[in-house]
Design goal:
Radius of gyration: 21 Å
Helix content: 40-55%
Oligomer: single chain
Order of helices and strands: EHEHHEEEHEEEHHEEHHHHH
Strand content: 15-25%
Number of helices: 11
Distance between the termini: 26 Å
Largest sheet: 8 strands, antiparallel
Number of strands: 10
Structural class: alpha+beta
Length: 346
């Protein structure tokens, strides 16, 4: 999740439910074969092309270039865990790269399934602003060379499902109350009728049962304008957020004592545990996030969102500077949690 210079205690719009917003653009240059058909030399030239464009911009010093082949497995996984690159980029690790802004609000993946995957990402429900970040970078990258575009089909991409706008917009939402009341499947069906899809945090096939984090995104990229997609996704996300808040209110009204007990037990565990597996940490931090959103726990939501990313296996190993065995990971995760919650009281 993005870390920028805003005060960690300040809530972004709708952040009690919406963790972050992201807009990602798939683009290919017209003068070069698409990524699956590229040679190694062409892939290197693609990275250099992006490097030169960014270097000529006013914010050149704010971007770092990371070549996937030069990173450890832990460092690569850390980038995925922080939503700065996709798992698909790692399929092309020998010749792919990413450019990341200092605030981690903009990243450009080079030589993934397409030449470029340009993304803007911000906390809370800020899809319009995230789109502005992505399109601003797209404009810079298209100044010297044109993107592959067809008057009838729109932007041409390696995968036909991205053809058209080439845009995938998403909002990641925390839905513990709707999950508990078994409303996720009906919600996903309703979203599908609006051209949206509801998936786990890391996309299709990923599991959200332990942490209750879901990604709402547009299914269709062809035949709708970028503005229409963003507008529809904002409305859909706002409706889902309202449903989650109503479900939280009902849950606290009907099961208040049970919920409070569960949330306080979670606080006790994270404050004193010496071993913490990833599959235990995620539901604990989900509980803590719900408690903080309800005003039952004095902890900033941004801090909790950071912990969810920072305490995953790749990020912990990258932090240690070496690959770690599971027993070491579990002990380090518990140490960091104890420190993070040491002074926290309900």
């Amino acid at each position: 999740m993005p870390v920028n210079n805003e005060d960690i205690t300040r809530r972004a719009p709708e952040q009690d439910v919406v963790v972050f917003s992201r807009v990602r653009l798939a683009r290919n240059y017209a003068d070069t074969p698409f990524s699956p058909k590229m040679e190694a030399e062409q892939a290197g030239q693609m990275i250099q092309r992006v490097r030169e464009v960014i270097a000529q911009g006013p914010e050149a010093e704010q971007y770092q270039c990371l070549l996937m082949r030069e990173l450890s497995e832990a460092q690569r996984n850390q980038l995925v865990e922080h939503h700065l690159i996709s798992y698909d980029l790692l399929k092309y690790a020998d010749w792919s790269a990413t450019f990341i802004s200092s605030g981690e609000t903009v990243s450009v993946m080079v030589n993934e399934e397409d030449h470029l995957r340009i993304q803007g990402m911000l906390r809370g429900l800020q899809l319009e602003r995230a789109a502005e970040l992505a399109f601003h970078m797209e404009e810079r990258l298209s100044v010297q060379e044109e993107f592959a575009f067809d008057a009838q089909w729109g932007y041409l991409t390696s995968c036909p499902t991205n053809t058209g706008t080439g845009m995938r917009a998403c909002a990641v939402v925390h839905l513990p109350a709707l999950s508990a009341s078994e409303q996720i499947n009906p919600l996903a069906q309703a979203a599908a009728r609006l051209g949206m899809t509801v998936r786990g945090l890391y996309g299709e096939g990923s599991d959200a049962k332990s942490h209750h984090l879901y990604m709402i995104s547009n299914q269709v990229t062809l035949g709708r304008s970028e503005e229409d997609i963003i507008r529809s996704l904002i409305v859909t996300t706002q409706q889902i957020a309202a449903s989650e808040r109503a479900a939280r209110t009902r849950m606290m009204s009907d099961q208040g004592a049970t919920m409070l007990d569960r949330l306080m037990r979670t606080l006790g565990i994270v404050k004193y545990a010496r071993i913490m597996r990833l599959d235990e940490m995620l539901p604990r931090l989900s509980d803590a996030r719900l408690a903080a959103a309800l005003g039952l726990l004095d902890y900033p939501l941004t801090g909790l969102d950071n912990l969810i990313c920072d305490l995953q296996d790749g990020s912990l190993s990258a932090r240690a500077g070496r690959e770690m065995a599971s027993v070491e990971l579990n002990a380090l995760r518990a140490d960091i949690l104890r420190d993070a919650f040491r002074d926290v009281e309900p």
